[in-house]
Amino acid sequence: MARLSLTLRREIVNLSRLGNSISKIRAILAEKGYVVDPKTVKNLLQKWETHGTIRDLPRRRPLPKFGPLHLRTMDKLIDANREITSIGIQRKLREENLTISTSSIRRVRQKKLNWVCTKPRYAQLIRRVNQTARLEYAIRCIENKETFANAIFTDECSVELDHTAKLQFRRKGEAPELIGRPKHPTKVHVWAGISVRGATDIVIFDGIMRSEFYCQELLQNGLLPFVRKAFPDGGYRFIQDNDPKHTSGFTKSFMVANQIPWWPTPAESPDLNPIEMLWHELKHCLRSELKPYTLDDLKRMITFFWKDRVTPEKCQKYIGHIQKVLPVVLEVEGKATGH
């Protein structure tokens, strides 16, 4: 639509001052051959009431563009604090006498500086002393061309009663489906071990695990029967984490009495225990496929998964994955690998 002349603008204001409504003003102008949009009339009258003029207001001064100095400053800000928001960057740039909109900051951050926003990835927190131990362990395994052919990797895990997957699709415009979740979900604890010759039976238990229970129930009824079947001539290595129940005097005495050769590994190193990946697969299968709704369902489906899905070939695949992790431990100097 063509811009209104100053004469027509004055007439609209005069008609309004005489008490005419917007629809009445448009009707009067239509009789004179002028077709004016009601929004145009409304905006003109608001301008008159606010600024006392019918002329065009001066346009806002365009925001200055980013220069090389400001790009470097912004890049350093993000590199120093990778959680800084566009508003935080804007405040810092104002200290450099530069006013930039947050939308421009977001655009420049991605297109010119190549910063992308992602959710943080969390990994095991590893103390410095354990970083050194992990590095030495990785060097020793690589130099000795370790294959873990006679290793039995064991661990415990807590499994919650959960039947909802982590992802859900919905059509555009649909509200997301709300799924109830208990504040303290029901859960059980499981223990098992894997080797290239297969897996032990899985043991499901409740309550707090103590050294006596660990030895008399898990090792006695879970580990030793598997050893007699898979390693009848001995020659195996028993691998567990450094939980206090695993390293207590009672547990050490039990392992000596039953000739269990414990092979120590670095603390805070779940990425060096391949059974952790099997726990992840178990939980994903329960959430997205088996979907237990009761505690009995949960126990039954855990047992089903272990007997049906955990094959020697799968155990060999996960144990072989350590060969990919060890070089990364060297590369990051013992820190978390993300595996």
Largest sheet: 5 strands, mixed
Computed structural class: alpha+beta
Report the order of strands and helices: HHHHHHHEEEEHEHHHHHH
Average predicted local confidence, pLDDT:
90
Instruction: Tell me what the CATH architecture of the largest domain is.
Output: 2-Layer Sandwich
Give a structural overview.
With 339 residues, this protein is an alpha+beta fold. It has helices at 6-17, 22-31, 38-51, 68-80, 86-94, 102-111, 128-143, 211-230, 244-247, 249-257, 275-290, 295-309, 312-320, 322-331, and strands at residues 151-160, 187-195, 198-199, 203-205, 237-239. Strands 1, 2, 3, 4 and 5 form a 5-stranded mixed beta sheet that branches. Strand 2 (187-195) and strand 3 form a beta hairpin. Helix 5 (86-94) crosses helix 6 (102-111).
Condensed summary:
With 339 residues, the chain is of the alpha+beta class. Helices cover 49% and strands 8% of the residues.
Write the layout of secondary structure elements.
Layout: H1 6-17, H2 22-31, H3 38-51, H4 68-80, H5 86-94, H6 102-111, H7 128-143, E1 151-160, E2 187-195, E3 198-199, E4 203-205, H8 211-230, E5 237-239, H9 244-247, H10 249-257, H11 275-290, H12 295-309, H13 312-320, H14 322-331
Parallel strand pairs: 1-5
Antiparallel strand pairs: 1-2, 2-3, 2-4
Labels describing this entry:
single chain, 339 residues, alpha+beta, Nucleotidyltransferase, domain 5, five-stranded mixed beta sheet, 49% helix
